[in-house]
Amino acid sequence: MEGRQRRSFTDDYKRQAVDLVASSGRSIGSVARELGLRDSVLRRWVEQRGARLEPTAATRRPTTQATLPSADHAAEIARLQRENERLRMERDILKKSIAIFAGVPK
Description:
The protein has 4 helices and no strands. The protein is mainly α.
């Protein structure tokens, strides 16, 4: 049984890949997928080259406390919750009516 051949990359390619991660502000995973690499390979290259990466929005910690929603936001949230409940009821009624007209047990 033959195994897969191991791919080798030039130092220039590795440097460009690390530069892309560092300059784009995108995650290592998204750049690795774009380049057809495994995350672990690109992460190792970044660590080996000591690239300074800006934290992505997903990994960045908030610097301030979250503020409470204003009265307008609270009213909007309440309105959307009522609308969601109404839509769920309409969906359930439609499901039940289809089952009745199609003769399919619930």
